[in-house]
Q: What sequence folds into this?
């Protein structure tokens, strides 16, 4: 009786690769997932502590290990506030557009909406960079590589490279720049809350105008700082993926003028001038 030789590791790897492609590339089914917030204090924003929990099945769990899922969660927690404030800014435009037609409120509402437009321009371009230039572009490359591969270990390698690429290009490996981006989100949220209060207020008081000027100054300082930090990363680390974002933001050299007017001590406190590394 002639026995068949045992299946080679390549055959097993190929079979696992086929299963992975069917589950992930064709029709991935998440049977058990939920959002969890680590911010339980009523004085903190619970949105900032959200995470996504997912239990992958065989053989996906060999690729989406707990360490890998935590990296995805870090990315999720970083990007969600951008998407949230983007939605709020678009909602504010719809709500306050009607008030601009009022003679009594139209003057100061137009001033506030001009600031909203500046903030939305910055957020929309940053979010477009993350979503289109990084995530969708890298996913398309990964999808093509996985489709052509018949080896599970090769697929795992492709996925690891994909995760490293999106982490570096979304800047999550640069802690000081991430902190600066998180701070500008807080300024944007402050402006959105301010617009909500204006909507329910009959008069535009001097205190409101002072708060508006404070928010405007904070946004201009922080956005100029971020632009300068990103420019420094692009220059010192040879990061061509930032070129498109910087070009979109600075098409009329507005952010170059903002960055040029920053105080040097302010820049150094936020980490500008240090050598950022892309892992």
A:
């Amino acid at each position: 009786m002639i026995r068949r030789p045992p299946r080679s590791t390549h055959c097993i790897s190929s079979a696992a690769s086929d299963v992975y492609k069917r589950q992930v590339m064709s029709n991935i089914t998440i049977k058990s997932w939920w959002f969890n917030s680590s911010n339980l204090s009523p004085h903190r924003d619970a949105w900032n502590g959200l995470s996504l929990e997912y239990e992958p099945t065989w053989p996906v769990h060999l690729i989406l290990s707990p360490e890998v899922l935590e990296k995805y969660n870090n990315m999720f927690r970083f990007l969600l506030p951008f998407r949230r404030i983007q939605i709020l800014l678009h909602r504010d435009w719809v709500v306050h557009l009607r008030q601009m037609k009022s003679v009594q409120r139209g003057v100061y509402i137009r001033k506030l909406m001009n600031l909203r437009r500046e903030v939305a321009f910055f957020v929309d371009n940053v979010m477009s960079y993350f979503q289109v230039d990084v995530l969708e572009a890298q996913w398309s490359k990964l999808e093509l590589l996985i489709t052509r591969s018949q080896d599970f270990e090769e697929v795992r390698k492709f996925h690891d490279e994909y995760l490293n690429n999106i982490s570096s290009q979304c800047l999550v490996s640069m802690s000081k720049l991430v902190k600066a981006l998180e701070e500008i989100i807080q300024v944007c949220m402050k402006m959105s809350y301010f617009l909500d209060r204006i909507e329910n207020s009959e008069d535009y008081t001097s205190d409101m105008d002072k708060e508006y000027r404070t928010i405007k100054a904070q946004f201009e300082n922080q956005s100029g700082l971020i632009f300068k930090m990103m420019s420094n990363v692009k220059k010192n680390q040879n990061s061509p993926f930032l070129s498109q974002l910087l070009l979109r933001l600075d098409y009329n050299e507005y952010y170059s003028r903002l960055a040029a007017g920053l105080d040097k001590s302010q820049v150094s406190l936020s980490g500008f001038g240090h050598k950022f590394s892309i892992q």
Observations:
- The beta strands are 33-37, 50-54.
- Residues 103-148 form the longest helix (46 residues).
